[in-house]
Design goal:
globular, alpha+beta, 16 strands, 16-stranded mixed sheet, 30% strand, Jelly Rolls, single chain, 323 residues, 5 helices
Length: 323
């Protein structure tokens, strides 16, 4: 419990770093658009574009978009078909998919991180896996393609997580429909497995081709996210600074864009401060949402641990990224 609480606090404290994280558009086939969280502007998506928290991806019927979540492209996802998906958080990854089809291949998630996809009827959560989530017309289908288990939670009509849960083993699937109980885990068909593996193999081929061609991603590495996490964890053990935010020993630094205000005019400095206040308000709203999602994620972890204690024969939720 103490470890889980520390993780929750670190995730909240790391918002300053997390706001800098991006995912990158690896490949586009067909037409796709991005709706910016800052301006609300909707514009065509291009290969190499960087997406941030709050941005919404919109894809046309016969199109697809490949996304990379780290610089080495160890963690990638393909969204295709008529889809709308919002990036609510990058690490831990939290995607909200109103409609569409997502296949994720996660080889190396950062420490303590998870990858979750929420639809109007369900949440699929993993710590490292290859899985697929499809949502159309009130029905969510979840497929597990790897040995690491996938947890599926049902949502009620208000979008609140219910106690019902299904744990999918390799090559199992389940269905979550509005107004119906969570379906049991079932074996995937041969055609379903082949279709998913073909798409996954195509993503891997494109990844290897891009890397061998010298294309380097311009987003954060897994190592950087791990380092940020450890830095924030160390801050929890430091005493509160009593010398003020401008002290040389202060653990809390001023924003980088305000460090040069001494050489700027008073009007520019006031404008800088207003911009900073506006961004701080926006970050506060995002942090509130992130805190609630982290609380929900922590509750799911506690529920899972309780289930293990009650039923020692249950399927464990292993973490392939843990060393």
């Amino acid at each position: 419990m103490k470890a889980a609480l520390s993780t929750f606090l670190v995730m909240v404290c790391s918002s300053a770093w997390a706001s800098d994280y991006r995912c990158e558009v690896m490949m586009i086939k067909g037409s796709a658009y991005i709706r910016s969280s800052d301006s609300g502007e909707r514009r065509p998506l291009s290969e190499g574009d960087l997406l941030k928290e709050g941005d919404t991806l919109e894809i046309s019927g016969q199109s697809y978009v490949d996304l990379a979540f780290d610089a080495e492209w160890n963690n990638v996802g393909r969204v295709w078909g008529k889809a709308e998906i919002q990036i609510r958080s990058l690490f831990p990854t939290d995607l909200s998919m109103e409609n569409g089809d997502l296949l994720a291949r996660l080889k190396k998630l950062p420490e303590k991180s998870t990858f979750e996809v929420q639809t109007p009827t369900a949440i699929a959560a993993v710590r490292g896996s290859a899985f697929r989530v499809v949502h159309h017309e009130g029905v969510t289908d979840v497929f597990n393609l790897a040995s690491s288990p996938v947890e599926v939670f049902k949502l009620d009509e208000m979008g609140r997580m219910m106690r019902s849960r299904s744990v999918l083993s390799e090559h199992q699937r389940t269905r979550v429909s509005e107004g119906e109980a969570l379906g049991p885990a079932q074996k995937m068909s041969v055609s379903e497995i082949r279709d998913c593996m073909d798409r996954s193999g195509e993503m891997e081929t494109l990844r290897e081709k891009a890397i061998s061609g010298g294309r380097l991603a311009s987003i954060q590495s897994v190592e950087r996210v791990n380092r940020d996490f450890r830095d924030n964890l160390s801050l929890l053990d430091q005493p509160l600074d009593r010398e003020g935010p401008d002290s040389e020993n202060s653990a809390i630094k001023r924003p980088a864009d305000l460090d040069q205000t001494a050489v700027r005019s008073p009007a520019d400095r006031i404008g800088d401060m207003r911009d900073f206040v506006d961004r701080s308000k926006e970050n506060l709203d995002r942090n509130r949402d992130r805190m609630q999602r982290e609380k929900d994620r922590l509750q799911r972890t506690q529920d899972r641990d309780q289930d293990r204690t009650i039923n020692s024969g249950g399927t464990p939720f292993s973490d392939p990224n843990r060393r």
